[in-house]
Input
Amino acid sequence: MLNIKQAGKIDGRNKNIAATFDAPPVLRRRLQSNRLQTTFDCLIDSFITRKVGLSDHFLNAPLAAHLKENLTALYADRQLVPAGIGNNALLVQNQLIRSDKIYWLDRAHDDPHENSFFDLIDHFVVYLNRTCYTGITGYEFHYALYEKGSFYKKHLDQFRNNKSRAYSMIMYLNTNWQEADGGELCIHHDDHLQTIAPNNGKCVFFKSSELEHEVLLTHQPRLSITGWLKSD
Output
């Protein structure tokens, strides 16, 4: 592990890390809170401006790496299941429309990294409700893995028979993703298409009832956490 104090030359980001390590606990929590607020504001402001919120570093690198390790281990252990279309009694599997595999996150797993992820989402929901009066009361998230050759055709996230999904969130776990790897999220606006590369740590945020979207054909395994903020 790099000892930042011993590094001969450090960039601005590492200086901030060093300052956080050296700070007293109260100041350290304040610095962490300020970074979270900056991240949350970036996501919310871009959503308000363009209907699609984007934050390149919503997940910090260590958390993204741990979650990727979890997902990779679950896949190797054959714990992922083919994703379906619809909900409850209307749930069906159709690999001509959707070919990813998923595994639901749950605090009951008592996994420290999943719990850190849930803590982050809790902070975001509190901030979103306080600043935007969204009335979010719950959420659900799953790991998603698109094997090479997988896709998800154009769809809307909110179910016709259940309006509880208010906002969609996608967070990516792909390091060194290249344009040739494909797998972009393609969002269908009224007057244009928006493509978003699934780069590591990035978060995408939009209304579940408004924007149709699709996952384009991926040429490499594509990992993410996908979920919905709900207003039951």
Observations:
- DSSP finds four helices and eleven strands in the chain.
